[in-house]
């Protein structure tokens, strides 16, 4: 079926529309601007499916009535539209009717008869007569075969049509199933997300309910720090009210069970939906048409066989016809006699009768069986499609119901989370308390570092001030010789920079006095609520769940928030590890590490309270443990390498200390030898003093470069505070810690020489260890050694300040002082040895802390790896979003270009319509025609190849309109001419009509006269045949004749019917010509009277030769006219007169 529904718009293509319920197809001629509603209205007229019940699908798109076909890319090659009847998808819809196959009945030809004349029937030769008989039979065979072949072709065509409809229905079911699969996958993914979130929430809530008692006992056993204890607060359980939480547990448990039952019921419903959907998707319509196409191809051989037989029959008919024609014309060859021809036709006849025609009938039966088979398959497919669409409708309804329930369960999940949030408080008290203690430690360490850095800043500013003062003094020293002092004073050049006081208002004075070791004492890990394995791997395990939809946002938000909470040490990250007054670099680093460790403990506690290690899946736990084992092995390897490095450093320091001890012993021996000999006492005294000074300097240097780092690392943090406050409160004097050069200048030449003399003989054992130490240490330690060496230079200048030479009387006193100095050196050596052993023990403890820090660092590195993975994922998402944005941008550009083209075309069409409107509104028909013709001519001259189809169509329409308007104008002129001629003819006809009226009046008057004459011929006496009689309607309802002699003449019922059947009411009188008169009499009993029929000849008044019969019979079966017994009456039959018309009177 084809229909042009474009409403005059240029056709763009054909739109195939297939009906799913029966497989019928339509080819609609339409364009891209045709509305879907127009398609639906046409399909309603062609399929009897209401518009409201129509569902049009093209691939995965549903066609909306208000949209044009261009919205869906239609019409387009390769795209089909399928029509589904929503009324058939309802559960109470009736089953489809059985398929009706209509085949045009082609009857068999009639059997040839000998009555049909043939030219050879009159032949004297029997062979020629037989030849005529064979021709009749062969023609009959051909016609019979042609009828069979035509029926077979009709059946095979119907079978192929049914097969095509089956294929259409199969594709329709695939489209419907694919459309359902799209929504089913969406709802299935929503269900999986819901199930995953619910399972995680369920495990978390079960964990909270199950371990509530354990958490309460743990809080009871966890005593509060002594500084925080009060009569009402002894343990952590006192932070909350236990009774309230036990009531909350009961409410949560009841709500948890109810919600669990609801979810189980919902899971059963969804399981039923899943089974129905999977069963539907597994049901394919291909089993109904499988092998049918092959069967159709195999049955083509029957058609081919019938074609071959028909060719044989046609050839035989032509052969016998030729023989007959030759016989009639006498052109038979001498060698072929009629008897021979007849004998040759006999086997051909037998072949037709016994082989060809039975084969054709057998082929027809096979095709009939094929048609029945296809019809059965079609009926099965119709029922299958009906049931399949009803299942789809049921599944769609279930999906919609499940979708509504999802929102309800999402809200229930949120309420469950809010309700169980109170129980999480019990679980989070322990980690929060441990995190608070760690925060106290971190703040104390940060405060010490902050104050130490302030002291360092004060010292640096003092050094800058000293340099500025020295520079000003040198300037005045040079220029005061030339410029008077008062002038310099007036210029302000005698002013000096003021002292810089760095004062910090004390803060964090109310912090608990606890250290890093007190955290595990007051808040051990096993009381926090998660194991050490959880604390070490909690962050990594938590981040492994970052891909889970239920926790990813939570974790990312937590990870983003925690650095903001614990980034108070960022101001130390960029600073160099330089000495602070009274401290060393390693002590500064120790304080930083202590603060960082406390920060990480607080971070782990905060994360552990939000994420639970037990909620991870077993596979994730195994992968986390495997990764943790690998990272732990790597960390242990790094720790062993670091231990080896530290042991090597300790060995080098031990060698250096041994060399110092050996050198000290040598010096002691030399001093003792010098004392015993007593030679050159004055020189020896000075030498001894310089040696002692050098020894002290070397000891100080060895303390700094050898064990100073280790010793400074373990100084109390309070020394840092004391040192800072001392340096900030004493107003550091300029030049006091930095007068090494001036002190060296103040020494006399003898002391300088002796110092140089003593420094030269020092062996390599005093220098090499320092050089080795410098090679091992980094640049920061060199700066520290330089600073401390400068400080030692000040201490050297103090004992050598006595420049006057000593007398001989003071030598005994000096000897006693030398002994005291030796004793002091020995005690200092012992003290340094003990400090060295303490440093070794503390170094071992520090190695343990470093290993612990290494583990924490590894955890942080894994956090960073997870963050990098998330960043990569975000980058991928960003890349995909960018690609999608580019695609959308290109599509928008393409749409914009299309819109621009359409707008330009619309503007051009608007201008053309304006010109057309101007033509239409021009006054006068001739001017309109002329302007329209000129417009068409101008448009034809301005044709451009780049114009679109709409403009070209408009040009063509204007041209056609101009031509047709010209034709109409010519027709109007012709019509006007014809009208003028018709008016003249009408005038002539009016004259003729007047003449005819006068003639009619004359004839009417004549007719009235004749009618009056006829009335005068009515017989009122004796009634005879051919006379005119008048009958009136009496009170009894009969027509009785007007007669002066007898009143018993009645009109027969046939005559009454003749005169009254065409009238609505009976007329008051009837006038007619008598054709028959029957005489009757009324008797007593009709059953006892013998019927006698007499005939009497009565001469007529008009002609004596004419006679009529008067019937004389006994009484009738019934006394119709109400006459007395024995009375005679006459029944008269009359005919209608040609000039008499009876008009019925109007109803009263």
Question: Can you put this structure into words, describing what you see?
Answer:
This protein is mainly alpha-helical and 1148 residues long. Among the domains are: 13-85, Phosphatidylinositol 3-kinase Catalytic Subunit, Chain A, domain 1 (Ubiquitin-like (UB roll)); 1017-1136, no CATH class. The protein has 24 helices and 13 strands. The strands form 3 sheets. Strands 6, 7, 8, 9, 12 and 13 form a 6-stranded mixed beta sheet that branches. A hairpin with a 2-residue loop joins strand 3 and strand 4. Helix 14 packs antiparallel against helix 15 (681-713).
How would you describe this structure in keywords?
1148 residues, mainly alpha, Ubiquitin-like (UB roll), six-stranded mixed beta sheet, 24 helices, 13 strands, elongated, disordered N terminus, disordered C terminus, protein transport, molecular adaptor activity
Mind summarizing the main beta sheet? 6 strands, mixed
Q: Kindly report how far apart the N and C termini lie.
A: 61 Å
- Assembly state (oligomeric): single chain
Structural class of the secondary elements?
Answer: mainly alpha
Helix content range? 55-70%
Classify the beta-strand content into a percent band. 5-15%
Question: Using only CA atoms, what is the Rg?
Answer: 66 Å
E-strand count: 13
Low-confidence stretches: 1-11, 530-579, 686-813, 1086-1117, 1143-1148
Number of helices: 24
| Shape label | elongated
The residue-averaged pLDDT reads 73
């Amino acid at each position: 079926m084809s229909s042009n529904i474009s409403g005059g718009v240029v056709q763009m293509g054909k739109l195939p529309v297939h009906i799913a319920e029966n497989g019928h197809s339509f080819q609609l001629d339409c364009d891209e601007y045709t509305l879907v509603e127009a398609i639906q209205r046409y399909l309603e007229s062609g399929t009897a499916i209401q518009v409201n019940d129509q569902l049009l699908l093209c691939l995965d798109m549903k066609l909306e009535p208000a949209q044009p076909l261009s919205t869906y890319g239609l019409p387009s090659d390769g795209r089909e539209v399928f029509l589904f009847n929503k009324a058939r998808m309802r559960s109470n819809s009736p089953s489809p009717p059985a398929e009706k196959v209509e085949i045009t009945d082609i009857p068999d030809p009639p059997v040839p008869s000998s009555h049909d004349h043939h030219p050879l029937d009159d032949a004297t030769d029997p062979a020629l007569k037989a030849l005529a008989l064979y021709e009749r039979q062969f023609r009959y065979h051909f016609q019979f075969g042609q009828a069979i072949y035509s029926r077979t072709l009709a059946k095979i065509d119907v079978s192929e049509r049914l097969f095509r409809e089956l294929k259409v229905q199969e594709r329709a079911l695939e489209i419907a199933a694919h459309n359902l699969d799209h929504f089913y996958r969406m709802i299935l993914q929503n269900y999986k997300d819901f199930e995953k979130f619910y399972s995680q929430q369920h495990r978390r809530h079960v964990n909270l309910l199950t371990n509530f008692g354990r958490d309460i006992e743990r809080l009871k056993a966890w005593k509060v720090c002594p500084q925080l204890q009060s009569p009402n607060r002894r343990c952590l359980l006192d932070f909350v009210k236990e009774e309230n939480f036990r009531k909350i547990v009961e409410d949560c448990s009841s709500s948890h069970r109810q919600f669990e039952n609801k979810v189980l019921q919902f899971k059963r419903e969804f399981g039923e939906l899943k089974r129905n959907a999977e069963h539907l998707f597994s049901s394919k319509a291909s089993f109904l048409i499988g092998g049918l196409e092959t069967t159709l191809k195999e049955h083509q051989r029957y058609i081919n066989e019938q074609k071959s037989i028909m060719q044989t029959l046609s050839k035989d008919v032509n052969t016998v016809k030729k023989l007959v024609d030759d016989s009639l014309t006498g052109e038979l060859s001498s060698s072929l006699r009629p008897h021979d021809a007849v004998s040759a036709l006999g086997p051909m006849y037998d072949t037709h009768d016994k082989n060809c025609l039975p084969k054709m009938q057998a082929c027809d039966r096979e095709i009939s069986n094929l048609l029945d088979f296809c019809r059965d398959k079609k009926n099965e497919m119709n029922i299958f499609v009906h049931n399949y669409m009803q299942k789809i409708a049921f599944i769609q309804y279930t999906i919609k119901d499940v979708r509504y329930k999802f929102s309800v369960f999402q809200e229930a999940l949120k309420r469950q989370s809010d309700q169980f949030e109170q129980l999480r408080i019990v679980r989070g008290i322990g980690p929060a308390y441990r995190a608070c203690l760690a925060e106290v430690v971190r703040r104390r360490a940060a405060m010490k570092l902050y104050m130490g850095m302030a002291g360092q800043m004060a010292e640096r500013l003092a050094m800058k001030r000293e340099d500025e003062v020295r520079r000003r003094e040198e300037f005045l020293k040079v220029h005061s010789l030339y410029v008077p002092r008062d002038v310099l004073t007036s210029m302000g050049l005698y002013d000096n920079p003021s002292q810089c006081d760095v004062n910090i208002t004390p803060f964090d004075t109310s912090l608990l006095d606890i250290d890093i070791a007190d955290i595990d004492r007051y808040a051990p890990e096993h009381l926090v609520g998660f194991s050490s394995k959880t604390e070490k791997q909690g962050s990594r395990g938590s981040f492994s769940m970052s891909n889970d939809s239920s926790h990813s946002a939570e974790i990312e938000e937590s990870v983003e928030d925690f650095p903001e909470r614990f980034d108070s040490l960022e101001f130390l990250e960029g600073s160099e590890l330089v000495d602070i007054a009274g401290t060393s670099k390693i002590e500064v680093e120790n304080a930083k590490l202590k603060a960082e460790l406390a920060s990480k403990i607080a971070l782990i506690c905060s994360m552990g309270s939000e994420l639970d290690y037990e909620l991870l899946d077993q596979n994730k736990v195994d992968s986390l443990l495997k990764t943790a084992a690998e990272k732990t092995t790597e960390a242990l390897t790094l720790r062993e390498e670091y231990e080896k490095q530290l042991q090597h450093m300790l060995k080098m320091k031990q060698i250096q200390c041994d060399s110092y001890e050996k050198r000290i012993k040598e010096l002691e021996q030399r001093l003792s030898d010098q004392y015993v000999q007593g030679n050159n006492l004055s020189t020896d005294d000075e030498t001894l003093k310089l040696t002692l000074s050098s020894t002290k300097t070397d000891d100080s240097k060895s303390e700094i470069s050898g064990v100073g780092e280790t010793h400074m690392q373990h100084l109390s943090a309070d020394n840092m505070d004391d040192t800072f406050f001392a340096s900030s409160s004493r107003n550091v004097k300029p030049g006091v810690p930095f007068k090494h050069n001036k002190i060296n200048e103040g020494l006399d030449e003898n002391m300088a020489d002796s110092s140089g003399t003593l420094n030269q003989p020092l062996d390599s054992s005093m220098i090499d260890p320092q050089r080795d130490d410098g090679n091992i240490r980094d640049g920061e330690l060199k700066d520290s050694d330089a600073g401390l060496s400068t400080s030692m230079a000040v201490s050297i200048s103090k004992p050598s300040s006595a420049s006057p030479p000593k007398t001989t009387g003071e030598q005994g006193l000096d000897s006693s002082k030398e002994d005291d100095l030796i004793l002091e050196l020995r005690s200092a050596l012992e003290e340094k040895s003990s400090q060295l052993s303490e440093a070794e023990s503390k170094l071992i403890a520090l190695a343990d802390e470093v290993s612990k820090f290494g583990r924490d660092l590894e955890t942080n590195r894994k956090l960073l790896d997870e963050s990098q993975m998330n960043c990569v994922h975000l980058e991928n998402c960003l890349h995909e979003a960018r690609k999608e944005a580019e695609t959308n941008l290109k599509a928008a550009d393409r749409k914009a270009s299309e819109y621009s083209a359409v707008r330009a075309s619309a503007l051009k069409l608007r201008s053309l319509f304006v010109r057309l409107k101007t033509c239409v509104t021009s006054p006068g028909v001739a001017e309109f025609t002329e302007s329209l013709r000129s417009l068409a001519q101008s448009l034809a001259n301005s044709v451009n190849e780049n114009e679109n189809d709409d403009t070209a169509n408009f040009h063509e329409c204007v041209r056609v309109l101009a031509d047709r308007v010209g034709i109409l104008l010519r027709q109007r002129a012709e019509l006007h001419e014809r009208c003028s001629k018709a008016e003249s003819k009408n005038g002539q006809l009016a004259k003729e009509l007047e003449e005819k009226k006068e003639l009619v009046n004359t004839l009417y008057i004549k007719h009235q006269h004749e009618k009056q004459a006829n009335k005068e011929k009515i017989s009122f006496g004796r009634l005879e045949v051919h006379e005119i009689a008048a009958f009136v309607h009496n009170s009894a309802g009969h027509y009785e004749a007007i007669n002066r002699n007898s009143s018993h003449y009645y009109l027969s019922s046939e005559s009454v019917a003749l005169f009254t059947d065409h009238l609505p009411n009976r007329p008051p009188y009837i006038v007619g010509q008598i054709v028959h008169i029957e005489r009757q009499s009324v008797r007593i009993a009709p059953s006892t009277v013998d019927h006698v029929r007499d005939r009497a000849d009565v001469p007529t008044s008009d002609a004596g030769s004419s006679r009529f019969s008067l019937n004389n019979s006994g009484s009738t079966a019934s006394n119709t006219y109400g006459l007395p017994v024995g009375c005679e009456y006459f029944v008269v039959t009359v005919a209608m007169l040609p000039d008499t018309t009876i008009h019925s009177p109007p109803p009263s």
